[in-house]
Amino acid sequence: MKHFDEAYSGKVFIMSRASFDEADAVVYGMPMDWTVSFRPGSRFGPNRIREASIGLEEYSLRLDRHLEDVAYHDVGDMLLPFGNAAKSLEVIREFADTVFQAGKFPLGLGGEHLVSWPVIQAAHAQYPDVALIHIDAHADLRESYEGEVLSHSTPVRKSCDLLGAENVYSFGIRSGAREEFEFAKTSGMHLFPFEVLAPLKEVMEELKGRPVYVTIDIDVLDPAFAPGTGTAEAGGITSKELLDAIYLLSSSDLKIIGADLVEVAPAYDSSDQTAITASKLVREMLLGWVK
């Protein structure tokens, strides 16, 4: 497939078996960390998540579903031009357009959080009334960072401008510049600091029936649960709380049309705890959100 390595190593998420054409969901890696401001390495996240998935059971006790019930295809990692953020985002956007136009569920693995932006653009092109659920430690509401408008700290601000701030819902936020929180207060967006599950329950009714795209940054978890990330932030939620949020979304009347999980950086976690957790999150997203 265009933009994917023909010599790809063959590592795929556990039980990926359908072809692209036969799949209801498409798993793909976005190995980019060109704009990170602290610790790089998230470009190695997608493959480590795949490697960790081999230790998973194919069955989810909580959801009472088996991976054999979901037709999904892992196309591997994109070939992104090293260091060229603008061109990388073009490549991601082109592929995301293809997935949405084919009526499939895209599940992206990052990579830094900027990789979500072109997918959100593609989601909006296909679903003009799409809402964004953003689960993260960081607000990501900057217009630029150190003069760069293409930065991992900007995708949610860009999404507010594109979707309308009132259609953006951020949960678990516990870090950001003062100006970011001032923007959140005045723009009409919905920002819920520190907590995820309780405020998520509060907004389910108003999002019912709407197309929703979900982006999850692994650093919403406390570093005790996910040390392998580029910008760890103390005071986060537990892995159980994040799983419960996924289950809540699974049981709701939301129309989840795509999702991503970003910022796994394996170099900072010799135990692979972060990748193991991420692989389970991906499994539950596939089983809970791909109907």
Report on the structure:
The protein is an alpha/beta fold and 291 residues long. The protein has one domain (25-289): Ureohydrolase domain (Arginase, Chain A, 3-Layer(aba) Sandwich). 33% of the residues lie in helices and 18% in strands. It is built from eight helices and ten strands. It has helices at residues 45-53, 85-101, 116-126, 155-163, 178-187, 197-207, 239-251, 273-289, and strands at residues 25-30, 59-60, 65-66, 72-77, 105-110, 131-135, 168-173, 190-193, 211-217, 255-262. The strands form two sheets. It has an eight-stranded parallel sheet, sandwiched between helices. Strand 6 (131-135), helix 4 (155-163) and strand 7 form a beta-alpha-beta unit. Helix 1 (45-53) packs across helix 8, helix 6 (197-207) runs parallel beside helix 7 (239-251) and helix 7 (239-251) runs parallel beside helix 8 (273-289). The chain is globular, with a radius of gyration of 17 Å. Its cofactor is Mn(2+). Keywords: Hydrolase, Manganese, Metal-binding, Polyamine biosynthesis, Putrescine biosynthesis, Spermidine biosynthesis. This is Agmatinase. GO terms for molecular function: agmatinase activity; metal ion binding.
